[in-house]
Amino acid sequence: MKKTKEPQNVLEKGKKKKRNTIILSTIIAIILLLIIGLIANNYIIVGKNKTINLVINNRNVTENLKTGILIQEGEVYISKEDLGNFFDKYIYEDTENNQIITTYNKKIAEIGYDTNTININGSDKTTYTHAIKQNDITYLPIEELKEVYDIEVSYKEEPKVVIIDSLSKKQEKAVVSSNVSVKSSTKFISKTIDRVKKGQVIYIISENNRYSKVRTENGKIGYIKSSKVTNKVTVREDMQEEKQIEGKVNLIWDYYSQVATAPDRTGTTIDGVNVVSPSFFNINENGELVENIGTRGQTYMDWARENNCKIWPMLQNSGDGMMSVTSRVMNSYQKRKQLIESIINVCIKYKLDGINLDFENMRKEDKDLYSRFIIELEPRMQELGLVLSVDVTAPDGSDTWSLCFDRHVIGDVADYIIFMAYDEYSDSSTEPGTTAGYNWVKLGIEKFVKTEEIEPEKIILAVPFYTRLWTQDESGKITKKEIVSMKDIDSTIPETAERKWDEDLKQNYVEYKEGNDTKKMWIEDEKSLQEKASLITEYKLGGVAAWQKGMETDAVWEIFKKALK
């Protein structure tokens, strides 16, 4: 029997019906997904915190905690390591006195393990609790450190959140105009992390026309539509630190010995100089601050103020046996504290603008403790609006001359770190050479900026107003080394001696005979200083300093003035 073909239109109708079925199913699936998404978008809330969260300045930092938050008898404790991570990277355990020392901006605090007392900037204050130790971890009560870190702290027990806000940072708050869900992101489908009812307070983190990033009172951080934000108020603005010196520092050291009196500068001016550093202070054999001011010193300060110069006197550890004395002071928190109190007292007594620390020839093993001294001194200086500048040598050389400084820490903590860019070849050198060659100075600056990672604007370049005249006998042995002031160079070397420019050192060099001896000098003059001063502009440094007043020629002040503009 012969088979007959199914009509073509019947086949096409079947295929069309099948396609329609697929399209309808797809549409239904999409609608279902949208419904599920909308439900998730509006009703699914992230579960409660399993551990105590920490929010600092509108950022949840819980993942960065090294140890967990500890709650005991209603007190919130944060570990020493975590406080070091978030607030004070130089937090320190003073094993001598069984206490923790922490510093932050204008405060230094001591808190022990046994007594309910905290000492802040030299004053004792009663507390509700103290530091504790659990499983070899030190915890500190954060509420008792509010004044130190300049913060406010709140603990939300139900969502398990500790919220810390810095009182020096900007804060804006507002209320919501209707019930809103706070989302984890601005995407169409995102989790609801919190709900805020109409009229409740939120804290604004950032905003644009569509969305605002906010923090709820529960410490949850997420997004709501900007149209829901109303009654915005700025609670506080960012605190801005005022600088004592506007622009570059132009400092001159005015040195005189411990037994001499201050120079009489009455009636004179030093064009462009805005800071003077007279040698007012030393430490004695007991590690105590001694002053050398007197009537002449008072007159000197009057002159400085009349000439609009800030006064940052030197505190030196110079003298015989000072290496061991300095070491004893640095190795005791109590001795460091006593010296700091003395510094603060003389600053108040004489209405000083700052202090210049000039500690040299120290033991390499005391490097970190000298840094501790600066860390502990800086908050007390900041409290009074005083400047702390610290002199350091080039980052190379001997243990007691160069390796005794942690330049990175000093540059981080102090207001200024002063690079004493001289004595490339010194009295201890076994061969003659320049006091401060341009290439050596430039290399030192690059080490400060790149290796030690110090902000250039905190670096002051110190240059010499002197050089050395070297004498060698016929065998080449050095028989004499004489320091020669800039102003005396022309009268020291013969007129017939030929001066040759060294392009690497950017100095004139002179060599001549005197009998059987050979005389050598690498000259510091206006041209060599101008070349070194150009590095201040090139590296955007904080200014210039010069050792020492009275050795210079008059022309140097105009050179510095131009270089610092």
Describe this structure in words.
The protein has 565 residues and is an alpha/beta fold. The chain has three domains: 53-163, Copper Amine Oxidase, Chain A, domain 1; 170-236, Roll (SH3 type barrels), CATH 2.30.30.40; 249-464 and 525-563, TIM Barrel. The chain is 26% helix and 32% strand. It contains twelve helices and 36 strands. The strands form seven sheets. Strands 24-23-26-27-28-29-30-36-21-22-25 form an eleven-stranded mixed beta sheet, with helices on one face. Strands 5-6-7-8-9 form a five-stranded antiparallel beta sheet. Strand 18 and strand 19 form a beta hairpin. Helix 6 (333-349) packs parallel to helix 7 (367-383). The longest helix is centred in the N-terminal third of the chain and has 36 residues, at 8-43. The protein is elongated, with a radius of gyration of 34 Å. Mean pLDDT is 94; it is low at 1-5.
CATH architecture term of the largest domain: Alpha-Beta Barrel
Instruction: State the strand order across the main sheet.
Output: 24-23-26-27-28-29-30-36-21-22-25
- Low confidence ranges: 1-5
Overall average pLDDT: 94
- Strand percent estimate: 25-35%
Q: What is the domain tally?
A: 3
Largest sheet: 11 strands, mixed
Per CATH, the class of the largest domain reads Alpha Beta
By DSSP (H or I, 4+ residues per run), the number of helices equals 12
Instruction: Give me the count of strands.
Output: 36
Cα Rg:
34 Å
Let me know the CATH homologous superfamily of the largest domain.
Answer: Glycosidases
Kindly report how far apart the N and C termini lie: 112 Å
